[in-house]
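Review form for a predicted model. The reviewer records the input and the model, then writes brief findings.
Reviewer: anonymous (R2)
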Amino acid sequence: MKRILSIAVIALISLSLWAKAERQTVVLDVDIHCQGCVNKIEKNIAFEKGVKDLICDLETKTVTVTFDPTKTDLPTLLEAFAKINKPAKVHEQTTASDESQIDTDAQTGASTLQ
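Model under review:
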């Protein structure tokens, strides 16, 4: 009996690790300016098919979405944001080389527009 229970526990742990491995995370820039916007996103996007986790950051105006790619994809998520009048785009992160260039420009007083 103990052996069967041990095998069942190991199977459940393996299954949960396998399921988590298939998740993807994307950071989106969204025009959120108040707690009402955050509530609207949490109320609607959190229940989209495949969404596993949702974190809104009002300060940076970003939303981090973790989803199951076998149930949804990025275009579908972007469409869901558009449906609630909160258009989103993939957040472009600054690379280390970009940051060093910004630091150099700040020290020299140079200004660059991209």
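Findings: The CA atoms of residues 4 and 16 lie 18 Å apart.
Further findings: The helical segments are 2-21, 35-45, 74-83, 96-108.
Recommendation: see findings above.
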